[in-house]
Design a protein that fits this description.
- The protein has nine helices and 23 strands.
- It has 380 residues and is of the alpha/beta class.
- The protein has two domains: 174 residues, FAD/NAD(P)-binding domain (3-Layer(bba) Sandwich); 134 residues, 3-Layer(bba) Sandwich (FAD/NAD(P)-binding domain).
- α5 links the parallel β11 and β12.
- The radius of gyration is 21 Å and the shape is globular.
Length: 380
Amino acid sequence: MTERIVIVGGGTGGTVLANRLTERLEPEIDSGDVEVVLINDGEKQFYKPAYLYVPFGKKDVSEASKPIRDLIPRAVDFRVDRVERVDTDRKRVTLASGGGLSYDQLVLATGANLAPENTPGLVEGGHHFYGPEGAEALREELAEFREGHIVLSVIGVPHMCPAAPVEFTLMVDDWLRKRGLREDVEITYTYPIQRAHGLQSIADWVTPIFEERDVNLETFFNVQEVDPDAQVLETMEGKEMEYDLLVGIPPHEGSDLVREAGLGDDGWVAVDQHTLEAEHAEDVYAIGDAADIPTSKAGSVAHYAAGTVAARIASDVRGEIPTASFDGKTVCFIETGMDEATFVSFDYGSEPTMREPSKPIHWSKLGYNESYWLTARGLI
């Protein structure tokens, strides 16, 4: 009887996993003993880090997507459909197109969802760069912006690409300077806890940079509501802040699919942080943003976690005891302007070591952005 591995989600984690599994289980797939099914609710994968560059005219949204079919082996059964329900007792998923699909191993790579509507007034009064429409709208606003107050407010945590708010702030500062507009623009960065970033070492590193560049830093700033008419942020702490251009990092949500399946009350799958196995069901894994683990919701986490899960599933298929373990490895480039960047790497229990920003590291990030699709195909 064929063993079926079902992957839900065709982002970085989903396609890397599909590639790794077909590589590790090639003999079993060729013989028909194993089947790998990838289900995604659209035909394309989107490389979201590219959206950071769209507001500055350095990228176009068309460069940030590719057909998933081009990123996975032909041996993978790719289905464009929506999984509406997971029954972990019957080991079966229900599809929007009708019917269902049984599984022997299930991997949830459902990502994170933007929920700006959870903050009253944010949709009407703010911009963001976490999706194609938002990045393009922000590009139009920035192109016409000449003077006033730009506020970058981290409203929702956790969020995808944890360094991106810092990057945008430093990039917009440099971008305005290069255009001779910085003297007429005030920039403020806000964060909901008592430092500039969730990771202490990044907060300690960026705080003096903000001061040097005349960027206002407001911490313990939890936005409760946006008044789009008055252009005012209102916080849970009773503070108010006026703005002319608001770039808000919107709240993120987990998946209703996860919540309704009893795999995580808040929509993120509760997993063992090392095995990535679900805590509330057997033969279920989660990778990437969907997994509730103590590290960043970053593409590199999905990439490395996919390798761990592929190794564990391959061992299980072959009747071996799985030993592969995920150490929380995270790798992240951080732009510090329009032509310099730094680079961090860390894992569970360790803080990033901050490196001196440089042009070569910036070029390295641009190079990786161009070669990302090799990662999605499991080649790097």
